[in-house]
Amino acid sequence: MKLYVGNLSYQMTDADLEAAFAAFGAVSSAKIITDRETNRSKGFGFVEFENRAEAEAAIESLNGKEVSGRALVVNEARPPKPRTGGHSNGRGRF
């Protein structure tokens, strides 16, 4: 089960994120999303658990909990929205 984790401290690392969730069970992956150009945190990330019960326990315990001075937002991740085909100037391609 994949979780969305928002309102993260910009100083938090992937390892910090994993450590915060490891108390609830085996974390398959923990990734903070960064800006491609600046490589700075965007303030959110994703944590994946193999066991749904462990993931639900993490949501219950950590949603709204203050970590590094910020109240976390933790819920089940939604599937990504389909991306559009990029920039279009309305003329089509030849």
TrEMBL record:
Pfam families: RRM_1 (PF00076). PROSITE patterns: RRM (PS50102). One of its GO terms (cellular component) is cytoplasm. GO terms for molecular function: mRNA binding. Keywords: Repeat, RNA-binding. Residues 73-94 are annotated as: Disordered. Residues 1-79 form the RRM domain. It comes from the Bacteria. One of its GO terms (biological process) is negative regulation of gene expression. This is RRM domain-containing protein. The lineage of its organism: Bacteria, Pseudomonadati, Pseudomonadota, Gammaproteobacteria, Alteromonadales.
